[in-house]
TrEMBL record:
Pfam family, one: GDT1
Source domain of life: Eukaryota
Main location: membrane
One Gene Ontology MF term: calcium ion transmembrane transporter activity
A GO-annotated cellular component: membrane
UniProt subcellular location: Membrane
UniProt-recorded name of the protein: GDT1 family protein
Length: 313
């Protein structure tokens, strides 16, 4: 058992490591492109000076100046380059924090437990619909804060990342290796309660005779799938409201490219939910919540430290 836990932890650490390697490569690529852009700007200005010295004819509209055209072209290129890099950085950041926030969380256990008893595909789509909606709403809330000065939201979000990271490290340090059972039991109780309600309603319908004996089997299957989908959606949405991953999505959307945050968040939720519904029972018994919490604390602090290298636009 200890060997399996160790391998899972090593695999998770490797995934996080590769994510940050990718972020570093993109940042390095950004610096190289910026250097090339500066060289191109100098070449354009050299051409401008040569044209003025040789009095070469230049076709310009009335009131236009060649230097202003060059400056405008360079500014547009820089703006597009910065937008592209910030988009990819937002995807990586959102994907990383969702992974370390959701694995072993209550919403994760809800999907895992429901998939043990019902259709995995239906549970997956029900949970993902709720998580996608929650991600979009959270990103919208974060984007709305952009009316506040950019530098202020950037440094406030940096401080919150550092605070969350330290809190997770503190929780992980004082957590026993067997912790996480409470999350599992709470999620199991919620799913069991919902199942009892559904069974009670079904029995009431049968006793009252409201359900015809010759009910079409196809309709019964569709009805069951619809009910299961709504259960997965409702339980996941309510459990996710006010959760750490929702707060981090709001914070990220306030400082990063909002479209990248949404895309990365959905990808992270899809990966976590997919793991839950496919191997929920096995992973739930082998996962070390303490290890995930400690790694999550390190990831949050690393994003806080990135403020020293990435300045607000």
């Amino acid at each position: 058992m200890g060997l399996i836990i160790g391998r899972c932890a090593l695999l998770f650490i490797s995934i996080v490591f590769y994510i940050f390697c990718g972020a570093f490569c993109i940042s390095h690529y950004q610096s190289i492109k910026s250097e090339r852009n500066r060289s191109s700007e100098e070449e354009l200005k050299s051409v401008e000076r040569a044209q003025h010295q040789l009095d070469l004819p230049v076709v310009l509209k009335e009131g236009e100046d060649l230097s202003s055209i060059v400056d405008e072209t360079v500014a547009k290129a820089r703006k597009n380059e910065t937008a592209d890099v910030s988009f990819y950085h937002a995807i990586l950041a959102s994907f990383s924090v969702i992974i370390v926030s959701e694995l072993g969380d209550k919403t994760w256990f809800i999907a895992a437990i429901m998939a043990m008893r019902h259709s995995r595909l239906t549970v997956f789509f029900g949970a993902m619909t709720a998580l996608t909606l929650m991600t979009a709403l959270s990103a919208g809330l974060g984007w709305a804060t952009q009316v506040i000065p950019r530098s202020l939201t950037f440094y406030i979000s940096t401080a919150l990342f550092a605070l969350f990271g330290l809190k997770m490290l503190h929780e992980g340090y004082h957590m026993s290796p067997n912790d996480g059972q409470d999350e599992y039991e709470e999620a199991h109780a919620e799913v069991h309660k919902k199942q009892l309600l559904r069974d009670t309603e079904r029995v009431s319908e049968m006793e009252s005779g409201s359900t015809p004996r010759n009910e079409n089997s196809t309709y019964a299957i569709v009805r069951f799938v619809s009910t299961l989908f709504l259960e997965a959606f409702t339980l996941t949405f309510l459990a996710e409201w006010g959760d750490r991953s929702q707060l981090t999505t709001i914070i990220l959307a306030a400082r990063e490219n909002v479209y990248g945050v949404v895309l990365g968040g959905i990808a992270g939720h899809a990966l976590c939910t997919g793991i839950a519904v496919i191997g929920g029972k096995l992973v739930a018994t082998q996962i070390s919540v303490r290890t995930v919490t400690l790694i999550g604390g390190v990831v949050f602090i690393m994003f806080a430290l990135s403020a020293f290298f990435i300045r607000p636009e």
